[in-house]
Write a structure and sequence with these properties.
495 residues; Rossmann fold; 41% helix; seven-stranded mixed sheet; five-stranded parallel sheet; 2 domains; 17 helices; single chain; 14% strand; alpha/beta
Amino acid sequence: MKVAFFSSHILWDTHYETELEIMQRHLDAGDEVYQYVCNAEMTACDVNPDHGFSRCVQCMAKRRHGRSLLSKEVPTQSYQQLHAGDQRRIDAFMAQLPGELDAFKALRFDHFDVGYAVVSSIVSQLENPKPDIRANRFLFESFTRAALEVYLSFMHRLQADKPDRIYIFNGRLAQVKGVFRAAQACGIPCHIHERGNTFRLYGIFEDHLPHDIRRMGEKMEAFWHSGEDEAEKERLAAFFFENRRKGVLLSWKSFTDKQVKGLLPDGFDPDKKNIMIFNSSEFEFASIGPEWDNTIYRDQNNGVTRICADMAAHPEYHFYMRLHPNLATADPANYEKVRQLHAPNLTVIMPDAPIDSYHLLDAAWKVITFGSTMGMEATWWGKPSIMAGHCLYECFDSIYKPNDHDELLGMLLDPELPPCDKADARKFGYFYAAYGHPYKYYEPIDYKSGTYRGVHLEPKLRPAEERIMERYWKYRRFSLLRQPLERTILRKLHD
């Protein structure tokens, strides 16, 4: 088998190590393996949005260091292969970039939904689900150009090289989504690697994004019907939900470790019908594709505003909105409108507040979620759970799925609304407790560190390269010296 890799996010913790793991496994199987790389040609990427020289050096040096640990030399080639006329097409496309976000998201270039891909990268960079295009014009232009160059280069590369399979990371971000769409257009199977459901596992997604709602639902369903016996599946499902409640670190950092167990907001009235609203980090899902666009509300803030306004006539109800702890360091634009709402029937709990999320859940009469796993957790712990925004588990029946705002209000007002059956919650919990491939060559320490074949993988320069870098740092303020030194060190690091 001829297997290709596009190595893109080298400096993001654990992801290149996972790629090396997969490379080595293919080498063990006797497959032909090669690597498409960026030798500082990309004008902007998620790892280095400003195209800083030292960041390019770190990326290339770490990439070479990692490849040196493989059992066999893996040939590399630059990803870039633009044909005559490609830059003219890109320039013409760039000249017509819109200034409005929804119009930008809708941009397509041949088979490539480049608008969604670029916005996905930028909202992750800024941690703002609605970035201002004019204020961030440089980012939008540089990411768009780089994404189109990657897409067209891979259209040419894949047609010429015809690998049996190509691997990429993540799939939703600007450059890697360009590779994914090129592979689809060329009929080349594209496998996407991502974190597994614990930091000791990695996930592989065959020809679909890890964020594809329909395909992920099918994957969870199929996983339930394979493998472990019923008792073990039940045990692992319970293990997932119990560990989430305890804040046990499995695949990512704990978001509840700074919360005080049993702490509720001041003035909490247990005699009211208390509705808990758990939002999500909206920027993570704001630009994956149209299937993630909320069909009931413009966004989470709009949803909470409308719900509280239309429920104001029912003073026996009170809403508590738990802002996701992941927003503590994010742009306040994610929640500023809700924080300033000052609705008498709404209490907003800030991301860094020590209020116990699970004690809130226990005290809830009903639960509303906007994409949070709390939606399925609420069902597991016996609460009526209502979905107000898309989520990966929406294909299951263990959550209420209103079609519009009025139907959601009806569910809130229904005094007999029971919790959904836990059957599908078990499938969800089992998948997120057990899905993934165990590492053989990478030894994880936690969710962001580990060793590959006993080595902490870092950028590693050769002595001659270190001497050039020392001269660079000494003379970089002189442009006549800086530019030749940059070209020299990059040339030495070229694969």
